[in-house]
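USER: My hope is that you can spare some time for a protein that puzzles me. I am handing you a single protein, as its sequence and its fold in token form. Walk me, if you will, through where the backbone shape changes along the chain. The protein I mean follows directly.
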Amino acid sequence: MNEPVRKGEVPVLTEIVQDEHAPRRAVDDAALEALARALERAVLERLGPEVDRVIDERLARTLNSVLGQAVESVRAEIKVSVTQMVREAVASSVAFALRAKNPE
């Protein structure tokens, strides 16, 4: 505690007023929790559209990249398949034409 005031000295405020009560919180737990929820809602309402836009943009870029690669892969497979089918069709047609000209 503070020293007593000596004769002839002017006391300072802390020597005059003694704090008998511990400082109280200005807001109780329930009010603090309600304030936190309200703040969270307000922030999400404000940021929600921006967060959705950023997610949509990133998702679109990722999907475009992945789909682009998948489409290129499928295109290459189709090209190989069509080329093979044409070769087989031509070979079959030539064999049929040769058999027709030279019946055994």
Q: What stands out?
A: The chain has two helices and no strands.
